Amino acid sequence: MVIRIMVAEDERLAREELHYLLSQEEDIEILPSASTGQELLLLVEEHQPDVVFLDIHMPEMYGIQAARMLRARPKSPLLVFSTAHEDYAVEAFRIHAIDYLLKPYDHLRLRETLTRIRQRMNEMNQITSISLPQHESDDEDGKKNSPSLLPKVSKLLVEENQRMYVIDPQTILFAVREERAVQIHTVSKTYSSKMTLQQLEEKLHDYAFFRIHRSYLVNLHHVLEVIPWFNGTYNLVMKNQQRAQIPVSRASAKEFLRQFHS
């Protein structure tokens, strides 16, 4: 599988650096680059990339604005934001960017991003290749009907004690890492999973979850109250019966609050 990547970056040196790093990967095809947001939209329409590496600060149109327009397309490319600043990380993930890279680029960190891209594309290919059983029937013209594609199931599959549970992500309040397991707290039950918190966060990528602490992942729709604590930290009160309180780390506090102010 060849991954077709487009880079949108107005700084020539940063663009050339990223091109060089991407060129080291055998399964990457580098498409023509864009130096402005408007140019990016035109080039995406022309070349249909699988992935766009998008600088947040560009002339004519911010990368965030261009990303929103790309997400509105029927077939949106995967988005990776690149910037010298951390301030837009939360906004990037709200637009469902697959990753967020800081400049100057680190080759090992970029390879982590490419691994994530490959995994996501494999998942997408598997979804589109799954079809219903080959029970063909004749239509009115006597022609064979081709099998229909199965719709994607927007549920989370969790294995616990050799059983598989199907969970609606919207019912999850929060998840917490405890020793070698992740406890997933829903409105009705708590599940113990062998997934890492990072793996769970990636699976819930399309929902309103936020990593407020290295040990906690929270569903923003189930936050009842935000309580100022000390030294720039906060505690969250959740909407469950127990009114669980969860700490917001100082490093995550600014991005977390921006979720509600934007």
Work out the oligomeric state of the chains in this entry. single chain
Question: In the CATH hierarchy, what is the architecture of the largest domain at level 2?
Answer: 3-Layer(aba) Sandwich
Mean pLDDT: 82
Following the backbone from N to C, one meets helices and strands in this order, namely EHEHEHEHEHEEEEEHEEEEEH
- What is the CATH homologous superfamily assignment of the largest domain? Response regulator
- Enumerate how many helices there are, as a single number: 7
Unreliable parts:
130-153
The main sheet orders its strands as: 2-1-3-4-5
Provide a short characterization of the protein structure.
The protein has 262 residues and is an alpha/beta fold. The chain has helices at 12-23, 37-47, 63-71, 89-94, 107-129, 197-203, 250-261; strands at residues 3-8, 28-30, 51-55, 78-83, 99-102, 156-160, 163-167, 172-178, 181-186, 190-193, 209-213, 216-219, 223-228, 234-238, 245-248.
Q: Which structural traits does this protein have?
A:
31% helix; 262 residues; 5-stranded antiparallel sheet; OB fold (Dihydrolipoamide Acetyltransferase, E2P); 2 domains; alpha/beta
Write a structural description.
- Helix 2 runs parallel beside helix 3.
- The protein has 7 helices and 15 strands.
- Helix 3 links the parallel strand 3 and strand 4.
- The strands form 4 sheets. It has a 5-stranded parallel β-sheet, sandwiched between helices. It has a 5-stranded antiparallel β-sheet with strand order 10-9-8-12-11. A 3-stranded antiparallel β-sheet has the order 13-14-15.
- It is globular.
- It has 2 domains: 122 residues, 3-Layer(aba) Sandwich (Rossmann fold); 106 residues, LytTr DNA-binding domain (OB fold (Dihydrolipoamide Acetyltransferase, E2P)), CATH 2.40.50.1020.
- The chain is 31% helix and 29% strand.
- The protein is of the alpha/beta class and 262 residues long.
